[in-house]
Amino acid sequence: MNERLAKTALVAGVGLFMALVVLNNLTDYGSNFAFVRHVLAMDTTFPENRLRWRALTHPAVHHAFYAGIIAWETVSAALIARAALAMWRARASAAAFAAALPGAAVALTVNLLLWFLAFLTVGGEWFVMWQSGTWNGQDAAFRMFAIVALILLYIRLPEPPRAGAPPLSSSPEPT
Question: In 47-65, which positions are buried (b, 16+ CB within 10 angstroms) versus exposed (e)?
Answer without folding.
Answer: eeeeeeeeebeeeeebeeb
